[in-house]
Design brief:
With 101 residues, this protein is of the alpha+beta class. It has a domain at 29-90: Rubrerythrin, domain 2 (Single Sheet). It has helices at residues 2-13, 32-37; strands at residues 42-47, 53-57, 84-88. The chain has a three-stranded antiparallel sheet, with no helix packed on it. β1 (42-47) and β2 form a beta hairpin. It is globular, with a radius of gyration of 21 Å. The relative contact order is 0.19. Residues 4-12 have low confidence and may be disordered. It binds zinc ion (ZN).
Length: 101
Amino acid sequence: MAILLLVIFAFCAAPRQKGAAMAKYDGPPMNLANMRANGVRDVDAECASCGHFSTANVDPLPGDVFVPDVGQHLRCSRCGGKKIRTRPAWHSRSRPGFDGT
Ligand SMILES: [Zn+2]
């Protein structure tokens, strides 16, 4: 028992490496071509003015548009706001074998 407690204490007392798990990404934001290559064709869009949230298909936009810039092409259907935050709609991703057929 004492050995077990010692092992648990040693594990809990071990110094943790802060930031080792996830390094901050400093590269360019994802563009639509890369998003589509990952099986995602929609973006999640949230209005900065009223908080309205929706998912929008972005097939008509070219692949070189950065995902955060898609909001410049959108307008809030609730309040008409033009400040829209966007991110890939990973939940809409098509995956082989999961298309319901
Ligand atoms: Zn709005």
